[in-house]
Fold this protein.
Amino acid sequence: MEAYSLLELNNYIKRVIALNFEEAIWIECEISSVSEVRGQVYIDLVQKDPDTQVIVAQSRAAIWYKANLFIKKKLKDLYDSILTQGIKIKCKVEVTFHERYSMSLSIVDVDASYTLGNLEMERQKIISELKAQGLFETNKEVPLTKTIRNVAVISSSTAAGYIDFTNQLSSNVYAYKYQVSLFQSAMQGANTESDVCDALYKIQNGYTQYDCIVITRGGGSKLDLSFFDSKKIGEAIATSTIPVITGIGHEIDLSIADLVAHTSLKTPTAIANFIIDRTLMFESECLSVFASILQQAQGKLKEKNNEIETASKTLNYLTQRRVLRAEQQLKQLEHTIHSSTKHKLSTLHQQLNNVDTLLTSYDPKSVLKRGYAIASQGGKTKVTAKSIKKGELQIQFQDGIVDVIKG
């Protein structure tokens, strides 16, 4: 049986590839991993089944130093965003085969418009699916408290947006105090989706009750923010039982996270100002209610004071009238008593005079003057003849006493 050596086989493959790929070709793929060493970039390229997401093709590729300088100059600010794990790219590659090192792909150009267009198509698809699920307004219907005090923040501790947010919140001119809890998450790259969804789950299922959830990061390009055009993040935000406020970059187009959130603001600083303004509005409402209560209380107090004053005047008038009437009654009673007493005294005086006259008429001296005489014996008055004994008897007349001897 005829056999080929490995070198012969590889030489044959080399000639076939050289004949069929004389020029660089454009391919569409996804970046699985990427690393840069001394100005040269090494990338794992993959293709996934659109339904199962299973890798159906994989190859190593490299961007050599000079090609890397060209691509950096062409992509400018998009360079880091496009050459990132999980991003789908359209790149121009030179296909070569080495007898010892096998096939290799050398990337010489990258089409940024493909990546941006592909992301936008995927974004619109996810938006349609979320709308079909009725999730676009779900989180917006969750009530947001009038004053926000306890805030859960999903961000990176080193992110400029997080620092801006906390600085703005803590340095507010009204000296409001807020409790901010950070839930660490990647804000860019392949881990963004899982980190953000995990953080949302932890916040809602923890022991602390938060007034709102803030998702924030600093500004960036459209590609930098594309990691928030995730269906899983959109679903997690939409179904959150706590209002979610987003401030993800400065782009004109809103991310899916922004679209389904309760409130979407352009920057982290804008979120801080929103929270501060809401607290200020609540304080103003409280002060307004207090002022209204005070005004009503003062009005009521004035009304009651007027009622008391009127009642006092009425009571004073009635009292004076009652006293005057009582004084008149007292004077009348006094007059009546005086008159009655005078009459009574006159009557008694007359009666006393009558008694005195009667007593005078019964006085023994008066009786003697009328011709009567009083007989007495032994110092005792005798009123009957039988009671007189023999011996000396005294008979008293008006003008003197006569001694008589009874035999």
